[in-house]
Amino acid sequence: MLKQRIITALILAPAAIWAIFYLSLINFAAVMLVVMAIGAWEWGPLMGCASKRYRIAFVSITSILIATLWYFLTLEQLWQAPKLLIEQANIVLWLAVAWWLLSAGLTFVYPRCSAFWSSHRSVRGLFGWLTLVPTWLAFMVLRTSEYQVDSYHGAQLLMFLFLMVWSADVGAYFVGKSIGKNKLLPNVSPGKTLEGFLGGVIFACIMVSIAGYFIDWSFEQYRIVIPVTILITTISVLGDLNESMFKRQAGVKDSGTILPGHGGVLDRIDSLTATAPIYALCYAYLGW
Prior knowledge:
Elements: H1 2-22, H2 25-47, H3 52-73, H4 75-78, H5 82-109, H6 114-118, H7 121-143, H8 153-179, E1 183-185, E2 189-193, H9 194-214, H10 219-250, H11 265-285
Antiparallel strand pairs: 1-2
Helix pairs in contact: 2-3, 2-7, 3-7, 5-7, 5-10, 5-11, 7-8, 7-11, 8-9, 8-10, 9-10, 10-11
């Protein structure tokens, strides 16, 4: 399994980086829509929908919601005015923040309160839309940032988000395996430990600091980005735990099988779905 995970990661990571830096904005938006659509397909079992008809319907509605956002935000024009894009995206991004606050509460008290949302597919479907749709929007807000000034600026922002999330995952895995003893939330994910969580946050801060050193950040930039890194890596754990909670409730081990050794797309982007909207808002209001 570890060998499969490594091989898949070695293929997937360069492909993701290439797409972020070199796809046109319209093509990038389309690729992200496809990724969210696959995530919507995998959300079906988490809703208790085994029927292909229901899953196709959920994918279709999710895609329509994203396409509607795409149409009304007129990204082709708004990438020339990133501040205007942020203003129009604000409601959806803050709605995502509200969802993740609710999600944190549901995760911390699990399995209490699970009877209501687990018995209503429509509620779990709403949770899916609140997870996937703002993620697409956040990626586009970040990728189009300062596009007229520097077409790669938004790509660099996304790479820092990836760096935070991926390094936190790596740090949490190795620290948790080596010295992890205290379970973080055993009712949701028995494998996660408090030591692993702290190790992931510290490792992410170290990696971001190293990256900042090579691009010659000022002290002021470090003063902003390190607290943001702590926030984002903490939220990334919430995204992972949230999916674990839904999978546990649905009796599902992985969200899918499309990625050998990794499971499904949702298994790979669960941390990003939680962090991307909040990271986009942090950059919009703080900047660095």
